[in-house]
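Input (structure):
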């Protein structure tokens, strides 16, 4: 598993990842509920949508909008098992460990906390 300090600069250089930002509705949702709730949502989404060895609909399980965590997942390449393998060094085809799930939630939280999603 790669350090977020190594992953974030690499992702920042990609136009596709850099285009993600929170819209007014997602920003308001984050502001109203706070970071702690966003991290709870992220942990739940990761456990249900990414942690299984073969997630249903892998590669298409994370919507592109509608929740700050979904947008952060695309921006941080934590949206599907292929992106996790390519960018974070977390292999596909097996259940994610607790440590790997925490890593993914940390990436999402870091992106949201640093205001990287502000347009």
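Output (sequence):
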């Amino acid at each position: 598993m790669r350090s977020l300090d190594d992953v974030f600069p690499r992702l920042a250089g990609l136009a596709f990842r850099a285009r993600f930002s929170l819209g007014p509705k997602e920003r308001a949702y984050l502001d109203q509920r706070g970071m702690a709730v966003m991290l709870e949502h992220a942990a739940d989404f990761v456990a249900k949508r990414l942690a299984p060895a073969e997630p249903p609909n892998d590669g298409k399980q994370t919507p592109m909008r509608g929740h700050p965590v979904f947008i952060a997942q695309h921006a941080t390449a934590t949206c599907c098992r292929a992106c996790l393998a390519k960018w974070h060094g977390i292999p596909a085809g097996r259940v994610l460990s607790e440590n790997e799930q925490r890593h993914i939630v940390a990436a999402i939280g870091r992106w949201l906390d640093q205001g990287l999603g502000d347009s």
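Notes: The mean pLDDT is 92. The radius of gyration is 13 Å.
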